[in-house]
Amino acid sequence: MHGTPKQSLSLAEARRISLVAQGFTGAPKLGARRPFDPALDKLHVLQIDSVNVFARSHYLPVFSRHGAYDAQSFDSHLWQSGEFTEYWAHEAAFIPLADRPLFGWRMDDFAARYAERMVQSNTAIEQVRAQLREGGPQFVRELESGPREKRGPWWDWSETKRAVEMLFATGEVVSTGRERFERRYALAEEVLPAETLRTVSRGDAQRALIDQAGRSLGVATLNDLADYHRLKTGEARVAVQQLEESGVLIPVTVQSWVDAKGTALPAWLHSEARIPSRLSPDALLTPFDPVVWFRPRAERMFDFHYRIEIYTPKEKRQFGYYCLPLMVGGKLAGRIDLKADRAGRELLVQAAWQEEGAAARTAEAAEALLARAAGWQGLDRVRVSGVGNLALPSHFDAQ
């Protein structure tokens, strides 16, 4: 489609394109044997994060799109099906194992970045290699020479931890699972199929990743496409140009997508993108959902200014420690600070806020979503603090 006249999209159309590309269909998959398959296919990248005040972040995108499901089955699928692996794909993230070769160039970049450190840490690296070769998959605590091994300057990491993380980044070591959020490490060549260790050229791999980003985003700017798998803008631009020439990405303009000077931002529609006539899902999102993880896109697409306040001193927080974005009718309508009180079997709403201009049914939608979220987490009720401008009942039962 090279040379095709530019299409013009309204902002509402762009939102619907993006949401359907992200796996929001408006239809729960509660009866499906594996309701997480459609979401994983659409997302391509499932970001992992250590915060667990409500639920681990990687569990939320499937719940957001398809409703309640069994987390244990999901873990088994991610770690035991042989279809997924973990790597630095956005941040730490699950990706299809078949696509691991598309990150070989990143592994090479890490090897170049860490070259001097790896020489300095050669003894520890050789020890890790030998222990993994002899003992198979192990946690860092099993690889360390003792429970009080001396810590170093990298985030208070021990020498062993630094060694194994460099080997993970460069692709020599892979994660075979997590326990209490700790990775269990193994030598990649011993646990992965040979075809996943193959080499793909930097250009071909990055073109494939931009193609996938375009498919997962539906419509996007250059920065949106680059951020999805954390490519450098210059390299992403080359891949975008090639995909435009081949007709995979179609140049478009989107209403109100402008730069600081008011000039229309270049954008691209993926050739497989759909423009649904109607799509208005309600959902609670993790802060690390692709809908919001690139903050400039969230502001441009939803007029939603969002920051995580985990690292903000309590007295300076505006909305709460761990606010989940609230989607109502396909628009970002608020944010809710959640905490699971598992001992008391309650989901605590520590603060609830709605955006200016939020839909009249925002409180009703939030109550329904919170009741379902509590039930999914095995809690009995929802208790609301009353902090914030989103009026909810003081308590209500889970569903």
Let me know the number of strands: 16
User: Percent helix among the residues?
Assistant: 25-40%
Beta-strand level of the residues, as a percent range? 15-25%
Question: Termini separation (Å)?
Answer: 49 Å
Major beta sheet, strand line-up: 11-12-13-14-15-16
**What is the CA-based Rg, rounded?**
22 Å
Biggest sheet character: 6 strands, mixed
Query: Which runs of at least 5 residues are low in confidence (pLDDT < 50)?
Result: 1-5
Mean pLDDT across all amino acids:
92
**Outline:** globular
Structural class: alpha+beta
Description:
36% of the residues lie in helices and 20% in strands. It is an alpha+beta fold. The strands form four sheets. The protein has a six-stranded mixed beta sheet with strand order 11-12-13-14-15-16. The relative contact order is 0.13. The model is unreliable at 1-5 (pLDDT under 50).
Write the layout of secondary structure elements.
Layout: E1 7-9, H1 11-21, H2 36-43, E2 46-47, H3 60-66, H4 71-80, E3 84-88, E4 92-96, H5 104-113, H6 115-120, H7 122-135, E5 138-139, H8 140-143, H9 159-169, E6 173-179, E7 182-187, H10 188-191, H11 202-217, E8 219-221, H12 222-228, H13 233-245, E9 249-254, E10 267-270, E11 283-284, H14 295-302, E12 323-328, E13 331-341, E14 346-354, H15 362-376, E15 381-384, E16 395-397
Parallel strand pairs: 1-9, 14-15
Antiparallel strand pairs: 2-4, 3-4, 5-7, 6-7, 8-10, 9-10, 11-12, 12-13, 13-14, 15-16
